[in-house]
Amino acid sequence: MRTDQPKTIYLSEYKVPAHLVDTVDLRFELFEDGARVHSTLSVRRNPESAEVSAPLTLDGDSLKLEHVALNGEELAASDYEETEDQLVIAKVPAQFELTVVTWIEPQNNTRLEGLYKSSGMFCTQCEAESFRCITYFPDRPDVMARYRTRIEADKSSCPVLLSNGNDVEKGDLENGRHFVTWEDPFPKPSYLFALVAGDLVEKKDTFTTCSGRGIDLRIFVEPRNAAKCEHAMDSLKRSMRWDEETYGREYDLDIFMIVAVDDFNMGAMENKGLNIFNSSCVLASQETATDLAFQQIEAIVAHEYFHNWSGNRVTCRDWFQLSLKEGFTVFRDATFSADVGSPTVKRIEDVTLLRTAQFAEDAGPMAHPVRPASYMEITNFYTLTIYEKGAEVVRMIHTLLGPDLFRKGSDLYFERHDGQAVTTDDFVKAMEDASGRNLTQFRLWYEQAGTPMLTVSDDYDAKQGIYRLTIQQSVPDTPGQTGKQPQHIPFALGLLGASGEALPLRLESAQGAANAPEESVLELTEASHTFEFHGLAQKPVPSLLRHFSAPVRVVYPWSREQLVFLMSHDPDGFNRWDAGQRLAVDVIQSLVSSPDVSEIEPRLVEACRALLGDSALDQALVAKMLQLPSEAYLIELADSPDVAAIHRAREQVLSHLATSLRDELVACYHRNAGVGTYEITPESIARRSLRNTALAWLLMINDDAGRELALQQLSDADNMTDRMGALRALVNSDYADERSTALADFYERFQDDPQVVEQWFSVQSSSDRAGQLPQIQALLQHPAFDWKNPNKIRSVVGVFAGQNLSAFHNPDGSGYSFLADQVCRLDDSNPQIAARLVTPLTRWQKFAPAYSSLMRSALERIRDKPGLSADLYEVVHKSLE
Ligand code: PHE
Ligand code: ZN
Predict the structure, then answer these.
(1) Among 207, 306, 374, 545, which is most buried by a count of CB atoms within 10 Å?
(2) Is residue 59 situated within a structural domain?
(3) Ligand 1 atom 7: the closest Cα is on which residue?
(4) CB 269 less than 6 A from any atom of ligand 1
């Protein structure tokens, strides 16, 4: 808590550490009223550091120092200096052993950083800079050490004691206590340290690696969750196999453990050999988790597992390099999900997130490069830009090099840097060295913030049979960055003939269509390029930026006719979907500017009719294509958006579609009715999704048959996807009585399951019918709501501000001041969550004036809160600048 300005850290000021630590010996004494941490470090001067006589400087946060000893000799208070965030020992030899004993209070730790308690169990979260909340340490990722950890605790309340590596010793102690010692043979940065102590049950399995080593797999959960681990375990085994087959990466310890905890700031954490997960990202059963949750769990388990190589074996030199591990690992988990599921649908989902939320971030006050140049509080930089845009950057390297050279590059990267803490530049260099490609200009993707804009124009020369495509690129200014250079952009495209056939792409006037490809990746490197395609007897329809080959905006004057054509003919499934989105966006936008419902584009209705009846097309794609662009996306696309007008227009289009297609929706519903047993395959997921979309549309127009179907589905459901689909449809309808009955019954049935209660909160707080401010206020008073649990806060406050946009942007400003109140309240207990929740307000400059001035005042009120945390300080001040 501070009133002074937090310090800015600059990448340009990076210096190698003055001291290195080879081994860390930890002993934890865990008690009800606190914990004593004994730490013994073997320290030596870093030969690569210029600061030969530098003092030993250790980071610390909220620690009570009990002892310090150097080479076994207790230091006097005059030998060291203890400040609010450091322990400095001025005179130290070139090599020595340092012992530090600290006292901490996990039971009072509400920030959930360092060692804390969650439902009675001790657990840790150290990334990025919270190992310093446990003991004094050079808490930076380029100090890598081997850890040995002894945990002592009460045997009955904490029968299970876990840390990184392999357990090497255990035994009983006096007073009903016991201990276990763990040893991790791999040097690691402090942010990968983990400890868990509690009353947990374990699900066991084994995995045999490609070289024939047997690995013990363990998922630890509270006893009530014992039956919800199977999906995570299967996902883990699939991930392990996939990483061997796709990247040649084998697991390295004898045991791999996952622990589920209810109170967790993020999704999950890749601590070496001991991943800690937010319960909502690991626990699942057919009755309690939706298809989406099953898929997310699989992706997150894979993501954390993949970090064992991309993050742990090769780690980050400093936190500016965060995307080195996160961007690469997201790319890896996205490829995995595509391989085990529906690749087109996975791509659609990723691009939706990117274009809706990352583009907004990149256009807002907190815009930063994939490799930031400065920060105040690193936890504010676990962003969509670092993760999602970072993954797109790796994907582009993959596109430019092709799969084989990319694999050569990743092999070289892992081999060259195993055991090291490195930079994004080292990653790119390995890709260059393995492929022989020059990625100098490509590196701008790491340095320049902002979403590049491609403006495309074309003309057709019938006489010569030449089609010319001109692509201009510009990269917008972002805070602190202007006058940017053109970037190296892989631009995949195809050309379609009048009956939908793929035309050969002949970039030269060379004869012979024999080996002309039907899809090419053009490489854009300049502000403007013109490409000539020869030998075309007709004007083609261009299919641009296929698979979304680069994270850019494309502006091209598509006619609605062309979009309808691409929707049904583009061989690239992603672009088919995208054409549908563009058409729907165009239709909704016209309605925003001239609200005449009678003019709603009939071709959109017909396209949806065709989709509803198309059982030949991949049903997973059909399900996606029937989803209208979200309000958030429409807002992102608009200049000075009027939220209420967008909300109204979108609802009108939805109602118009539902009214016009009422019979087709009913038919689609029945065609996709649940058949046989519940399965999590792309086909059955698609069926449930289509059915739930049909239901939602029918309830949108208060169709009584739809209402019956929803009630029936609710009482018949044998899985959460169907149950939630029906509940959501009712909650978002005007059937007020059915809505309250359904919500009450649902709560009654699932009140003992926190993960389901979170979904129950979200379905209300995201709904403009059930989630207006007074109702949100009531949810905060609900006995199941808990201010100490980030998931509950997110499912009410976060979902309201991020997804219930018409209610949040109530023109009277009540939504904004509500959010400001909650953010201020949270800042005292969990500043990291407070700084994340404030995000919607930081976009104030984008909105129409009536909204933006109210948003700004809400932000100013937060700025003026006494004792603002560094986390909030950075976000609020940067957005008001
Ligand atoms: N490193 C985690 C991941 O992406 C995310 C995380 C960051 C978790 C910081 C906790 C704290 O897998
Ligand atoms: Zn990660």
Answers:
(1) 306
(2) yes
(3) 127
(4) yes
> Ligand 1 in contact with 300 (CB < 6 A)?
no
Identify whether 218 is part of a domain.
Answer: no
303 CA closest ligand 1 atom index:
12
Q: What is the pLDDT of residues 751-783, one digit of tens each?
A: 999 999 999 999 999 999 999 999 999 999 999
Nearest CA to ligand 1 atom 12: 269
Residue pLDDT, tens place only, 103-131: 999 999 999 999 999 999 999 999 999 99
Residue nearest to atom 8 of ligand 1 (CA): 269
Tell me the CA distances in angstroms from 524 to 37, 452, 546, 549, 775, one per residue in order.
Answer: 56, 12, 15, 12, 51
Decide if pLDDT at 473 tops 70: yes
Distance between CA 167 and CA 181 in Å, rounded?
6
CA angle (758 as vertex; 350, 161 as ends), nearest 5: 90
Q: What's 53's domain CATH number?
A: 2.60.40.1730
Please list all protein residues whose beta carbon sits less than 5 angstroms from ligand 2, which is an ion. 326, 329
> Is the peptide bond preceding residue 510 cis, with omega within 30 degrees of 0?
no
Q: Which residue has the tokens 């020992």?
A: 89
Please say which residue of 647, 679, 701 terminates a domain: 701
Report d(CA 714, CA 733) in Å as an integer: 15
SS3 818: helix
57 part of a folded domain: yes
With 0-12 / 13-18 / 19 or more C-beta atoms within 10 angstroms meaning exposed / middle / buried, residue 48 is: exposed
Domain residues for the domain of 154 are: 1-199
Q: What is the DSSP letter of 312?
A: T
Query: Quick one: three-class SS letters along 593-637?
Result: HCCCHHHCCHHHHHHHHHHHHCCCCCHHHHHHHCCCCCHHHHHHH
Please count the structural domains in the chain: 2
